[in-house]
Design goal:
By secondary structure, the protein is α/β, with parallel strands linked by helices. It has a single domain (43-219), classed as Rossmann fold. The protein is built from ten helices and eight strands. The chain has an eight-stranded mixed β-sheet, with helices on both faces. The longest helix has 13 residues, at 77-89. It is globular. 37% of the residues are buried.
């Protein structure tokens, strides 16, 4: 297995990997508004996975849905390397990876450029003082709203009861529509949504093996 340094060097040369640089806050990110044309070369829907880690979920979705484009976003290039390398080996042309902080995610995509967002097992930031760092805090939801289509969905999967309940409270307080939610996905998953439990991240596998209940919320931002 390559070291972190080797992964970082290889990441920079992988054709399906891109990086948002801090100086692009002022100059503008070159791929903003250009993902369809420049990266995927089609007009298929774009789906983001925020905090994708090693990219298991993004790769799984891309394998199952060739009619959609997927972008896994994470700040750690050594994590992204795993998913990007696997996608390259599988010759998946409908997936890319972006190294960026979620704080700057609205600088990376243009208005109506994204059709759907996945947030899979993010850090729940359980301390009250860290509430604004939760990826379903309203300050993040407002960022997503700048590039997510009006009828687009946001999906949260988590083992954290506190994050799940916080998300529901945030959605209700801001009168954002909840499409479907459950505090036990593996018990209540509808037959027509089997993909929700068929694709597992590394952490999801660990949590389910320990008997943890997986929570799921699908909602919209308008």
């Amino acid at each position: 297995m390559p070291s972190k340094l080797q992964k970082f060097d290889e990441y920079k040369n992988l054709p399906n990997c891109f990086t948002f640089l801090f100086n692009e806050l002022a100059n503008g990110f070159s791929l903003k508004g250009q993902w369809h044309k420049t990266v995927f070369k089609n007009n298929n829907p774009i789906v983001l996975e925020l905090g994708c880690g090693k990219g298991e979920y993004s790769v799984g979705l891309a394998k199952n849905n060739s009619n959609k484009n997927y972008i896994g976003v994470d700040i750690k290039s050594n994590r992204i390397w795993t998913g990007a390398t696997q996608a390259k080996e599988l010759k998946l042309n409908n997936i890319a990876f972006l190294r960026a902080r979620i704080d700057f995610i609205d600088h990376c995509f243009d208005v109506n450029e994204v059709d759907e967002i996945w947030i899979t097992f993010p850090d729940p930031q359980p301390q009250k003082t860290r509430a604004k760092a939760r990826l379903t805090h309203i300050r993040f939801l407002n960022r997503y709203k700048r590039f997510l289509k009006n009828n687009g969905y946001v999906n949260l999967k988590t083992d954290s009861t506190s994050l799940y309940e916080f998300t529901l409270e945030t959605l209700n307080e801001n009168k954002l529509p909840i499409i479907w939610e459950t505090n036990n996905l593996y018990k209540n998953c509808p037959n027509n949504r089997a993909e929700l439990i068929e694709i597992k991240t590394h952490y999801e596998t660990l949590f389910t093996e320990k008997g943890e209940d997986i929570k799921y919320v699908q909602f919209q931002l308008s």
